[in-house]
Amino acid sequence: MGDQPYLQFHSVSKAFPGVQALDDVTFGVAEGSVHALVGENGAGKSTLLKVLSGAHQPNGGSLSLGGVEHAFANAREALEAGVAVIYQELNLIPEMSVEENLLLGHMPTRLGVIDRRNMRTRAREALERLGEQIEPAATVRSLSIGQQQMVEIAKALMRDAKVIAFDEPTSSLSHKEVELLFSAIRGLRQDGRAVIYVSHRLAEVFELCDAATVFRDGKLVVTQDSLDGIDHGFLVRNMVGRSIADIFHYTPRSQGDTVLEVKDLFGYGLSAPASFSVRRGEILGFFGLIGAGRTELLRLLFGAERAESGTTLVEGKEARIRSTHDAIRHGLALMPEDRKLHGIIGVRSVAENINLAVRPTFASYGGLVIDERRERENADAFVEKLKIKTPSTRQLMRNLSGGNQQKAILARWLSRHARVFLMDEPTRGIDVGTKSEIYSIMYDLAESGLGVIMVSSELPEILGVCDRIIVMREGAIAGEVSRDEATEELLLKLALPDSV
C-alpha cells in the first residue's frame, strides 16, 4: 500500500437547492488500497462519486491525482485523467457486443475500417486479465449482472484507470459472482490501483477493504486508515450517531385468521405450482438463491405476470387476479425488487408518487379535477409519519436516497389501505439505520393486523425479521421452516440444488 494518497479530496463541498450534500470533505485514497465509503442513505457518498466522475462540479474545494489538481467539467475529462466509476446502473449498451462496449470511442481501425480481429484480441486479453472467459462477440444483454460488472472493470483497465470506484457493486450478485468480483478487486489492489468501495454491507467492508471513511449528513465523520482492531459497532455508531445493538429488534406478536391463501399458483418463472398462506399479523419470509423464483412468484401473485393456473383467496374470498389493477382492488400491494424501474416515477414529485394509488379517491368529475389540497395533506402526513427525508414533497422522486424512495412507496400503499404487503428485497441498497426503520414499519403493519410477505437474499435479515420462512429452489417451494427451527445451515441446505 502506498504511503501517500494518490487520490486526495481537499475541502470538497456540494450544495443543491435546500440540501448541503457535501460539506468540507477532506481525505485521501492510497495506491494499492481498497478504501470503503460508508454511511446512511443521503450521507453524501454517491454525490462524492459523482464529483469524482465529473458528473457534478463541486461548489468548493478540489481533488488531486498524483499531486496534480483537477477540476473535471464532465465524465470524459475524468476518464481521460484515469478515473472510472462503476455505478449500480451499469454504463453499458445492452444491444452492442462486449468488444464494442469495451472499445467504444477507441475502436482500432485498418485502412479506415474497424479492425474486428484486433478488437476481439484486445477485448479477450482484457477479460482474461480478470479471469473471465466471456466471449467478446456476445451481446451485453445476454450476460449476467456479474459478468456485466466484469466488462465494466475490463473497460476501466483498457483505459488505464488509476482510480476505480464501485457503488454498491454486489446488490444484485449471486454468492459466486461476489467471490469473482472480490477476486478482481484484489487484483486491482495488487496492480497498484486506488480503489473506492461503497457498500451498506459492512461484512464486505471488513472482508475486502484496507481503510474506511464514514459520512453522515454530508459531513466526513471519521477516516480509519486501517481497519485492524475496528468492529462493526464502531462504524455503525459513527454512521448513525448512535448505537444499534440489534437492528432487527424483533418481538413476537399475536396472529389472527388467514388473510391470504394461495393454491397451486403457476406461471412464468416457476417449475412447480406454489401453495402457501399468510395470517393477519404475520411476516412470512421467502428465501432462496438468485434465480430461485421468488420475484417471479410475487409478480404472478400481483398480476404483473399472467398466471397459467391457481387460486388466490383474500380474507377467505376468491380474488380473480389477471392484472395489477385487480390485485390492487383486492388489497394487495407490491414493493418491487427494482424500485427505480418498477416502483417509482423518478421525474415526478414525491407527492405525486405517494398519491399515485389513491389519486382516484381525491378526484371528482370523473377524474378530471384533482383535489390538490387533499393530495398535499396526504403526502405531508406520510412524510412526517415515515420520516421521509426530503426538502419538500415537490422534490423529484429521483433525487431522494434509496431508503427514502422505499418509504415513499410504502406511503403510497398505506394511503390505499392495502391488506397484504408484498415486499421484494425491501432493504436492498439501504443503510443500516434506514433498514432498522423499515423493519419497524413492517412490524407496525403486522401489528395492525395486515399480512406481510418479504423476499430477501440476506440470511440474517430473514432470520431476524420473519415469523415463518419458505425456501425456494429452482422455481419451486423446497420447504417451510418456523422461526424457532430456522438456522442459516438449514435454510441454505434447502436452497442449494441437490447437485451442490
Protein described:
The chain is an alpha/beta fold and 500 residues long. 33% of the residues lie in helices and 26% in strands. The chain is built from 17 helices and 24 strands. Strands 6-9-10-3-11-12 form a 6-stranded mixed sheet, with helices on both faces. Strands 18-21-22-15-23-24 form a 6-stranded mixed sheet, with helices on both faces. A hairpin with a 2-residue loop joins strand 4 and strand 5. It starts with a strand and ends in a 5-residue tail after the last helix.
Essential attributes:
500 residues; six-stranded mixed sheet
Helix content: 25-40%
Distance between the termini: 38 Å
Radius of gyration: 24 Å
Count of helical regions:
17
Mean pLDDT across all amino acids: 88
The gross shape turns out to be: globular
Biggest sheet, open or closed, and with what strands and sense?
6 strands, mixed
Count of individual beta strands? 24
From the helix content, strand content and strand pairing, which structural class follows? alpha/beta
pLDDT under 50 segments (min length 5)? none
Strand order of the largest sheet: 6-9-10-3-11-12
Beta-strand share of residues: 25-35%
What is shown here, in short?
This protein has 500 residues and is an alpha/beta fold. The chain is 33% helix and 26% strand. It is globular, with a radius of gyration of 24 Å.
